[in-house]
Amino acid sequence: GGEWCRGKVEALVSKELVTVFYTDYGHRGEVDCRHLRILSYQDRMKPVQLREVVLRMPDSDNEVEEVRKILEEVNQTGEKLMMRIEKIMPMEEIMVSVWRVVVGDTSLSSQLQKIC
Fold first, then answer.
1. Which member of 3, 7, 59, 96 lies 3.0 to 4.6 Å from 20 by CB, making a disulfide possible if both were Cys?
2. CA separation for the pair 67, 59 (Å, rounded)
3. How many angstroms from the chain centroid is the CA of residue 91?
4. pLDDT tens across the length of the chain (116 residues)
5. Spatial distance between the Cα atoms of 1 and 22, rounded to a whole number of angstroms
6. 21-25, long-range: CB within 8 Å, 24+ apart, which pairs?
């Protein structure tokens, strides 16, 4: 029964509860320790489908366009990219999660790693 997602345990909340970062979806949640499972080697080796990136808050529409152009250059296949603002931080920085809407494609993840 239920849906299983890959994740990384980030913190112990209590004896029974942990905080998990869902590596392919980019969000966090609290999980009962009884629901945790160890991934098989094959599942651990699958590429993560999401990248968290920290950007300086754009000051103008031109800077927003510059970010868009960089993402278009990285995404050479022209597939749809999704971006979610995760957190607005001090010093006018924003943390965003970026992923491509294609299961199993890892080129964006590796290319974003190179530019961030």
1. 7
2. 12
3. 22
4. 567 788 889 999 999 999 998 887 777 899 999 999 988 888 888 877 677 677 777 778 888 888 778 777 766 666 677 777 777 888 778 877 776 665 454 554 444 443 33
5. 19
6. 23/48, 23/49, 23/50, 24/48, 24/49, 24/50, 25/50
